[in-house]
Amino acid sequence: MSEPGAGAKQGGENLLFLTDEQLRKGIEAMFFAYRAFTADPDRILEGMAYGRAHHRAVHFINRQPGLTVNTLLTVLGVTKQSLNRVLRTLIEDGLVETRVGRKDKRERHLYLTEKGAGLERELSEAQRARMRAAYRAAGPSAVAGFRDVLEAMMDPDLRRYYSTMKDGSA
Question: What is the DSSP letter of 21?
């Protein structure tokens, strides 16, 4: 992972002295980009009576098969009650299965079923298509700078977790 901000030195603006208006534009761009980024999966989930919490759970279970419920709680930053509602629905609908831990029988490890993996592919493909198009339009240095900005915004614990995920070691 590059140092946060490493790719930001190439723009014409002095990034140390951004105005409130420049920061506001960035915040608004992030809001509207997130809205567009989630629109396609939201349409797919709407017909299934699922929401974004279901999408995020399916995404991270796919990304790290066998992760524990406690790890998913930490990653999603939701309450146990909220996550239990989401997981109960996904399990009842045959999208997620739980397995008891081998080392610690109290742990529940989460895996997508074949049906769950199919839903995850459908949801992610819509987002990958949008990201791919945006990355191509922006170019390689903008993509690197964008990642630097996102990583710099993360809290240190989540940045460390993200770093292990993107390297494939989590």
Answer: H
